[in-house]
Here is the input.
Amino acid sequence: MEGLPFLPGNSFSDPTKNKFHVSHTLAYRNGYATQKHPEVGIGGEPIHYNQLNEQELDELANFNPTLTYGQAKQAPPEDFVPAHVAWDKKVLKFNAYFKQTVHESADEFYRVRPVNIYYYLEDDSIAVVEPHVENSGMPQGKLIKRQRLPKNDQGDNWHWKDLNNGTSAVFYGKIFHITDMDKFTKNFLESEGIEVNSPEDVESDPYQKRRQKAAELKTYNTPSSFDKLKQFMELDRKVLRFFTVWDDRPSMFGQMRPFIIHYYLVDDTFEIREVREPNDGRDPFPVLIGRHKVPIDRYGVKSSFPGVVMELTAHEIKDYFTPKDFKIGQTVTIYGRRFLIYDVDNFTKAFYYQNFGITEFEPADVKGRAKDVPKMEIPPYNGFGSMEDSMQSCLSLIPQPPKKDFVKMLENDHKVLRFQAILDSVKPEDGGRKFIISYRLADDMMTIYESPVRNSGIIGGKFLERTRVAKPDCTTNQPSFYGPQELFIGAVIEVFKHRFIITNADEFVLKYMEEHSSQFPESTINSLRECFAGSQQTREVTKGGPMKVRRADGDLDRLVQEVQAQLKKISITGKNRIDDLFLKFDTDHSGYLDKEKLKYMCKQIQLPLDDDVMNALVTQFTTNREGKIFLEDFRIFFESS
Here is the structure.
């Protein structure tokens, strides 16, 4: 364990050590305190270091044997031999090869070319020679002339110490891999203290190997009658179906989960699909194992390095799952998961009976396979958003938008049924409020708009955004929405606790209902016909001229009341201001206001009135037959509540 790094998991305690006290180094001898060096460390391990003291170490360091034995005699000098004489005709020979890339050939991608590397000890020069091969078609011979070859950019040259078996040398951009050397070279390197590596074989040339294989005597095997083509023709679209369970309860949070194995006979592949159950708390990934050939022992394959893909080929795995490996009551281990087969379908039973003679197909009893799912209770509608959007939040964890009928939207695009309605309320201030109910036929949504009335104290505008309106007596589980069949003259609809009474409609509503009479009750169409028949009027239309409209009964009284209310809302706080208003419009100082002056006064305060309305208004001011309004009548009109 000494070579391992000091990390958690790499250090282990010795169970034989039981003494962890510090050794005793202080003692008394003959009444004197003495000190000794510890010989045993913590845990009982001996201490391996010098036990000498500093004085003894100094004596050994300063010991000079010449002072004791005298000066040693020098050996006679040897004769000087130059390097070129000592290493003359001594050459190291290495066997190597290099790979040459072939770019313009479909039969080969590279060639393996063996060479001999000669190292001249005389001047440390190197020559590279390629042996001649007959009919090779390549220029061979001396590749690199004898010279000193540079090793790097710092000016260093290749030395014989850099060359050994199994190493690679780079000469002018070419990589030469050394595989072997001769006997003289081996003895020379060993004499210089270099450990010689074991020799290697020269890598085979793929092109030469393919040529040799093509030249060999060919043997043929008689193909089987049941080949892949026949298997495809007879077994295409034939799938064996096995019902299995994966019991993962021993692990943390594990459960017994049902799966289905589909075995495709056409290519001996299978897939494992999960049986989805509502509210099981898992993401919708139905396929556990995709369709492919599954080996019986995936992890029993010897590892090959280097590898660029994780998939296994037919050269590495020979045994794959077949229909013989699947039986009822048998547990199959697939990628580390144990699947228990408890039942099969009828086609699988017939296949096993015809091919394997199996007649017993009793389903296995799997306990805990089915579980009781609590009944989902939909909460009541809380009033936020539409009822359909709130329902989507109860049906799925991630709410999806409600599905729309696109055919209906295309057929009824821009078709809107408009109705006039009043608010049915007990409050007196809501008595005169009028609303326009727009029903969109494309998506069955309603929009309610209130006509603004000046100085009424109520802000008009959009009363209800576009939404589907549910009936008050429906439930959240089965909502019932208002349709065009429930909208007719006199109908009472309740929109979020507000009751509306339909009083009128557009002519397009009657036209649409008559064109689609099969979709509407006869009573609904008759109510609209009666409404339009009562308000039918003849119109004399002249281009650029005025339009004469006949009013219905009661319209004149309502208009007079509204004009009277608008006049009384003028902020007049005293008699002096009433008198000033009277004198302002009595321009001729006649002492009274006639019909024309009263009409001019109404026009100044943005109340343009017709003649019939003005005549009725004059009767409210005075009882004079000539229609003269005096100052006292003017005061009484504005001061009356």
Q: What stands out?
A: The mean pLDDT is 82. Residues 555-568 form the longest helix (14 residues).
